[in-house]
Every structure is written in structure tokens, then in C-alpha cells.
Amino acid sequence: MDEKIIAENIQQSRKQQKMTLQELADKTGLTKGYLSKIERSEKAPPYSTLNKVAGALGVEITDIFKKDIGTTQNRPIVSCQLEHDILHAHHLMEPADIFPGVPEVHSPPHNSGW
């Protein structure tokens, strides 16, 4: 795995959230200097450290390893909790609220003889 990709993804995720190195350090319990070395590809962190950083950034650890995290997707990173809330909000809404202007389609009654 290219350490430079990991470093760039961590830095990009942090900056997209307008988070300083010190804020990330406070959230992870790691030092600002250590995190700076990670972002400059000077220090190859263990998986447990990457897991802490991902959690503090609100991203999946797999996002840190992606080669194209910001180039092809071009979308802001959304925290896991926010993504969960968005995906499950439809349970609180009526179909007409989710798809305005689209008539509701009802399934035909189930025929148990088939």
C-alpha cells in the first residue's frame, strides 16, 4: 500500500472538515507532531492508529486506503452517523415525501396458489 495515498487521504479528510491537526490530535489522543508526520508520509502508522484517525474523522477506515478518495468522487466526506441518519430517514417519511409527484404504486395481492 502506498503510504503517500494514506497520508493524502487523511489530510484531505481533515481539511474537508476544516479540522486542524490539533483538533484531530485532541480527538485521537495522538500528538500533533505524530499526526503531522503521518500526513507528510514520514511515519507509517499501525492499523490501530489509522482506525483511531478514521474514527475521529468520521470516515470508514477503508476510505483512508482508497486511491481516488477525492479525485473521482468529488464529494465531501460525511460522518458515519450522518450517513446513517440520511439512509434511515426514509422510515420517518411517507413515499410521497420522498418522491414528490410520483404516484404511489401498490403491489397486487399475493396469490398463495402460485
Descriptive report:
By secondary structure, the protein is mainly α. It has 7 helices and no strands.
Short description:
The N and C termini lie far apart (53 Å). This protein has 114 residues and is mainly alpha-helical. It contains 7 helices and no strands.
Please render the helix and strand layout as text:
Layout: H1 3-16, H2 21-28, H3 32-39, H4 47-57, H5 61-65, H6 80-88, H7 95-98
Distance between the termini: 53 Å
The number of E-state strands comes to 0
Overall spatial form: elongated
Main pleated sheet:
none
If you compute it from the alpha carbons, what radius of gyration comes out, rounded to the nearest whole angstrom?
Answer: 21 Å
CATH superfamily label? lambda repressor-like DNA-binding domains
State the name of the first-level CATH class.
Answer: Mainly Alpha
Helix/sheet category: mainly alpha
CATH topology-level name = 434 Repressor (Amino-terminal Domain)
List keywords for this structure.
0% strand; 52% helix; mainly alpha; 114 residues; 434 Repressor (Amino-terminal Domain); single chain; elongated
